Amino acid sequence: MIDEVAEESAVPTKIVVGTDGSDTAGRALRKAIGLAKAVAAELIIISAYNDRAPAGVASAGIALDAGFAGAAHSAAETIVQQASDQARAAGVANVTALVVAGEPANSLVDATVEHNADLLVVGSKGMHAAVRFLQGPVAKKVSQRVACDLLIVETGEKPR
Question: Which domains does the chain have, with CATH numbers?
Fold first, then answer.
C-alpha cells in the first residue's frame, strides 16, 4: 500500500510542453521550465506547425504549398530553439527540442506517448467563456485524449 502511494505521488521525470512563441505559450513554457528544474525532469519542448498554405492561397499551386511549409518549419525551429535556450539558461539539464508538422493538440498528445511523458503542460488560452466552444483550444483538445497528468497553466485571459 505504501509503495502504491509513493508511486502515485512520484514527481514527473519527463515533462512535455508546446510553444508557438506567443506570450501565452511563454507563460506555460516558464511554468514547465520551473517544474522541470525543481524536480530535475527532462523537458521536451515541441513546436508544431501547419505545413499547408491557408485555403485561400492554396489554389496558387504546389510550389506555394511547399514554400509555405518550408517557412513554417523554419519559424517553428527558431521558436523551439529559443525555448530550449531559455530552459537551459534557467538550469534545466535535460532538454529535448522537437519540431513537428501537424495540428498542435495531436502533436502534443503523440509526444507524450512517444516519450513516455508523465506530465503535459499547456496554456489555458481560449479556455474561458464562449471562446472555448468556438476556437477549440489545445488545452481542451488534449484534456480529452492525453494519458498522462495534465497541467493547464492560467495564461492571463480572464472571463469578461
Answer: 12-153 (3.40.50.620)
